[in-house]
Amino acid sequence: MTLESAPESSLPTNENPLAETALSTGSEWWRSAVIYQIYPRSFADGNGDGIGDLAGIRERLPALADLGVDAIWLSPFFTSPQNDAGYDVADYCDVDPLFGTLDDFDQLEREAHRLDLRVIVDLVPNHTSDQHAWFIEALAAPEGSAERGRYIFRDGQGDSGELPPNNWESVFGGAAWTRTTNADGTPGQWFLHLFDSSQPDLDWSNPWVREQFREILRFWLRRGVDGFRVDVAHGLIKADGLPDVNLPSGEEEDSPGGSMNQAVDVPYWAQAGVHEIYRDWHLVLEEFEGDRVLCAEAWVEPLAKLADWVRPDEMHQAFNFSYLETPWSAPAIRSVVDESISAFHGVNAPSTWVLSNHDVIRHSTRLAMSPPPPQGTGVGPRDEPKPNEALGLQRARAASLLMLALPGSSYVYQGEELGLPEAMELPDDARQDPTFFRHAGEKYGRDGCRVPIPWEAEAPSYGFSTTGSSWLPQPGDWAQYARDSQTGIPGSTLELYTLALQLRREYGFGLGSLEWLDTYGDDVVAFTNGDVTVIANTGPVAVELPAGDILVSSEPLTEAALPADTTVWLIAR
Ligand code: BGC
To answer: Do 104 and 67 form a contact (C-beta atoms < 8 A)?
Structure first.
């Protein structure tokens, strides 16, 4: 293991004794893992301030071991002004006091490893916070300085530079450029921010930036983390010359529209140069013992292109957002599953599957919306008609049971194992997502999937915080979803997930292989994974089941038929 530190780097080095606690059994555990996403501010509050923290997470880890997941991924808990809930990092190598200390992180990691749970942390390399020392120094330094070269500063267009350097739009709404003010009060250069104006984009063509991130990776690897989820992994490299986004002809007056998704070609998503960065990071991970993983958050289509992120010398996994965005419709599901398996297997990577995360409408609400609004839009009090909660939950349970039967690795977002719906009635004055503000309230944004989760039906804030405080208000009818209302109750969503995860492990689904069964009609997804037959009915009419022993079903089965919006696993006779 080589541990070189960059001569230029000012990052703290840390020979952490806890590195030995890393689970080091190798075996490419991530190929079949179920990875549970913890959104720290909304998981469990250990100090009563209404914002979840690392101590709260540590205390609740046994519940995740009981659920039967293999790993946890922690969304950012690093030093941050929290303008984008921590995805605006001011110090990559420290913990924000809101969430605790580095010592709290070490204790959490040690406890997770003791419970056989791997620990993945979130790395945010596309941008920093404007409160990061690198950006503060860049703003104070003259145009053309090395400090400014860490970010993407440019002169404006127009006679006096009053127009932004190009027509790029922020994903959160509005222009992707903000103009600076010089020390003498005159208007200065502009800087690029694909997200909020408090999240300036780094310039990844600068070797200094690359070296800083190698050291950040090593800092957390030395602490014993099992991997990184890499934020905006399709955005780090921008096309040379920062050309305008080309609008389809006739739409020149329209806004080019910011979106995470590289569905159309834009000069900042999915540029070929990003791959060199991940090849470099792959080597950094190999400096360390154990089996560490890089997971790409890359909204790239088609899947055949996304597969480039997980070639053998790059990352290990990429989130399958094509799967997440697939409607509850058997033909669409069959086709995305086929496409995923073929694309990922083509580069010897596992397929991944995901239905919910902290950026999208929870699938127990989304699957009752037709069509769901684009990612980031959210859903709120003024939207009509309201999605049907019971239908959404039934479909979500069926969709989750289908997902957990697929070969490869699956992601579960905190609260989906409880069947939590999107919190749709949040008042405007409670909202915190920059999307809401940058769209002047026209888009609700992502707060509805980030509401603190319920643990105990009868406790203040449903047991999220001992003081009953909660940074986003929790709906009044969530007692029914609380973990303790579901524990040990046959058929509850929590018991459904727990049983499914146990069976998934027992039957080796993660490393299994899928064979389609095509005798059930168009509205049905049916396949075998090893000895188990999986049948999901997305249509309105019940379908006849084959003779067999039922292992688990997403709804109670009263006869030898599979009702609408239901999935079953069985051993056929
Ligand atoms: C994260 C978002 C975040 C954005 C900017 C994403 O894709 O998942 O929550 O707002 O990156 O960092």
So the answer is: no
Residue 255 CA, chain-centre distance (Å), reads 27
Give the chain's radius of gyration (CA, Å). Answer: 24
To 10 degrees, the CA torsion angle through 414, 417, 422, 427? Answer: -60
- 231 classed as catalytic: yes
Evaluate if residue 74 carries a pLDDT over 50.
yes
Residue 118 has pLDDT above 60, yes or no: yes
Phi and psi, residue 384, nearest 5°: -135, 150
Q: 442: Cβ–Cβ under 8 A, 6 or more apart, which residues?
A: none
- Interval 172-194: pLDDT, tens: 999 999 999 999 999 999 999 99
C-alpha–C-alpha distance, residues 322 and 339, integer Å: 10
The token pair at 431 is: 């909202």
Tell me phi and psi for residue 333, to 5 degrees. -65, -45
Contacts of 454 (CB under 8 A, 6+ apart): 418, 420, 462, 463, 464, 474, 478, 479, 481, 482, 483
Residues 375 and 259: beta-carbon distance below 8 Å: yes
Provide the pairing of β-strand 71-74 with 118-123. parallel
Question: Which residue's CA is the nearest one to ligand 1's atom 12?
Answer: 87
Q: Name the residue of 73, 195, 197, 443 whose CB sits within 8 Å of the most ligand 1 atoms, as the mutation to test its pocket.
A: 195
Structure letter (DSSP) for residue 418: G
Q: What is the pTM for the complete model shown?
A: 0.95
| Residue 201 known to be catalytic | no
Ligand 1 site, CB within 6 A: 84, 87, 124, 195, 231-232, 260, 297, 358-359
